[in-house]
Amino acid sequence: MKDPSRIYRWMLLVASLVTIVYLVGAAVQENYLAQWKGVQRQYRSLLEDKATDDRGRELLAKFRIEMKQASIPALGTVDRCVTCHNGIDDPRMTDVSQPHRVHPGHILDKHPVDRFGCTVCHHGQGAAMTFREAKADDVYWDYPLLPPEMTEATCATCHDPEKLPPDQAPLLLAGMELYREKSCGACHKLGGRGGALGPALDNEGAKTRHQLIMTNLRPPHTTWHWQEAHFRDPGGVVADSLMRNPTVTQRGALALTVYMLSLWNRDVPESYLAPDKIEQKYRALHPVPLTGEQVYRQYCTACHGDGTYTRWDKKFNRFVPAIRGVSLVTTASPKYLQANIEQGRPGTQMPAWGPHAGGLLPEEITAVIEYLRTGATEAPITAMVIPTGDATRGLSLFLRNCYGCHGMNGRGGMAPEIGNPVFQQAATDAFIVRTIQNGRVGTAMPAFQRKEAPVFSDQDIADVLAYLRTVAGPKAQRAMAQNTTASAPPGGRP
Amino acid sequence: MAETATREFVHNLHELPHTVRDACFRLGKTPESEREESQATFHNLFLHIHSVRVHLRTLSPTLTFGLGLTAMASFVITIITGVLLMVYYKPSTDLAYQSMKDIHFVVYTGRFIRNIHRWAAQLMVLTVLLHMARVFFTASYKKPREFNWLVGLGLLVMTLALSFTGYLLPWDQLAYWAITIGSNIANSPRELTDAIGITKWFDPGGFQKRLLLGANFVGQDSLIRFYVLHVFVLPLALVTLLGVHFWRIRKDGGLAKPEDPMGGLAEWGGERRQVFEPLATKTYGLMALVKGKRPPVNRGPENTVMSWPHLFWAELAVFMLTVAITLTLSFYWDAPLKELANPAIPENPAKAPWYFLGLQELVSYSAFMGGLLIPVIVLVGLALIPFLDRRSGGEGVWFGTAGEKSTFWQSLCFAIAVTVGMLAFTVNFGWLRNWFPNAHQLWIIAINPGSLLVLFFAGWSLLILKRQDSVRLAAVALFTCFLVSFTLLTYFATVHRGPNWHFYWLPSQWPLH
Predict the structure, then answer these.
(1) Quick check: ipTM above 0.95?
(2) pTM (two decimals)
């Protein structure tokens, strides 16, 4: 009779052999093929070559092939990078290849590895035991190893970059300067200050690659690659991006990227912070007001340019007023300008900049109004005798002369919305009348009462004014209804 | 005197290996006769759950494919590797992920051990499901094995629960979002209570979710809950139930098999043999130790062989085969470990563990249907099978009664057509919500691809019941449909569902985030 368990005995033999092969394989892999052991053997022979004096011999005698790590509970890191980077603090290791070489510069003098570890500056996966996993740009890890030129971004974790020696973080400083120069604050908030069109950037450096849209980006899909590509062509990386191309050089894009990576409110124990960082944090809570020109440059130029001419914004399909135009600032009262800055223009891209919105200080708003009015010699007209107007007649004048640009029912078109609640509230009759009389130099608004050929009589202007006061676009009406402080004008339609 | 004692002492010392062996093993030597072989079996605590003789059918590899044993072996492997992992794992949201990384990077062979744990767990889920299919298609649930079928269902649920609770422990993105999805499936009765507007007073979904998570979100409370369930409560419960399962196999007469013919010649083991014909006047059941000079000379009673060594060779072989498969998989494919769990960055798509993906696909149509009603219908239906199909016949034989094979193939084709058709229709044309955006949610709960699948399958089974006039064939039809749609839905949700649960032919076409 055939042995019924013969097949099972063969199966057992084969399975047991396979098991033994893999168990032995795992043991060999763990004991003899570990990358770091080979690295440490190489390093030992380097130590032997350099053991020419007592100190060298002592280092060689102390060297052991073992796993090494810098465990920093205060930072929540365990960095095993030193398992392979054995020569990181040995000044003799200058002429050897990586990973044995000494750390460049004198940074380790003030940042010893056993107090700071590695990943607090370099990012990467400190716990890993192979370079691929430590670098972590193709494994699951939120913060892969930063490229060397971008490592300065992390200086900002503990330092105020502007108080560092200028050669220590040149890209970071350049990035900060570009951020101000390109007036990024017009759309992005940082520390509670800035516009509301784009996302706030306070923790931009903490973002992981999963929070950024990588669809249109060629690999590598790292956050810094995304940032750099995005600074060169925002719309090419994020479809439908509202962001204007900042038009920066290659180095400029790199600098801005480094600055973005540095924006990270990381929770670091106070004992790790440089005194200037603490001062910087204090200044963020108690800001020193900027000058009017600084405010204008950082928060206004992105849309208004230098403010002396009207520009057409293709992105938003609308015009941007010339807020430093001579005829505006000589006509408009500071109060009118202040209302527009503090409350913005609801329904347009102009955000509110008051302390609870854009975060500008009252002193700064005053200063920027001063700046807008630079060169305005005449005092604004506050009062004027205006005849009583007829709104119906005003409507027919409006239809013939104004609505081409200003649109119907105060809704605006190429020119400002007459129905805008902030406009209706802040603009005095005298301001409107004077604007119609003289027009706006540097914009498309013509003068309707030029001495040589007046289009409107005083009565005409009064009629148009009466009509304008009856107008408010539906959006504006809603905004006005919500704005309890607004003394809304009767919003009937003609 | 002194000399005698010394000699005795030296003698005892010399004999020490033998005396210790005799003390440990009751037989004390390699069995040489069938009597000793039977003693080796029933004198051993771990072996005595087996009968001393085993039927040749039971040893046939193609009867069971060793599926139950493989599941058992995988369970043993997960217990051993799980204990090793427990030594390093720290069940705290602050420490768990770092301890996983340490297991991965610096614990000696830690990555390998974790891989083995992971693969053995996956293998266990898979083989438990296949084992159930095997038992069904060999009609092995029939009297007197109804209870053991129920115990097996309990073991299936427990296996899934063990695997699911283990899923959270690494505290990475995969774990966090899979458990978030899983707990939302537990929350699914809320779809119905919301639709009738009684959630405020009666909220079983919210209760289930909070019971599972210990909070309204996945956090420290959930982690410790899952940990306790995973390392203590569920393994203990599963071992207990497993004991009952094995004990009942023995008490129910071993693996199901058809009655042996009495007397005459029969084909067994490749040769024609005289089959033992019992005499009505004799008892044979007390101790089946034969082969000797007593009644059936040179023949075994029925078609049995000694369990020692044949059955134990087979069991050992299946066990080692499981080990070999697990080690091979673990050597080449690492268990996943994604980024640290981050409640602020949802995984897209967030997918449940693979064995729940079929359910997740149904949940995407209707949470209540997919998350509660259909699983309950399936489990109750499976539990009822042995009590509704009472006619004996075909036990222990694949597709043992007439017409089973053709019913199986017909049902297979029917279920593939219906499931694929339903999925293709839903992907291409949407469902009620797309056509009638304002439809009441109750309509969606009642009529959705999931509930229609259930109706189609129930209708098909009733049709078979009527036309074939056989409960067993109706059961075969229904079970086949369940198996096919489970497989297809799982496959579909695994491969073809991408971000926002949209359809993609390949994962490589997913938009990158």
Answers:
(1) no
(2) 0.86
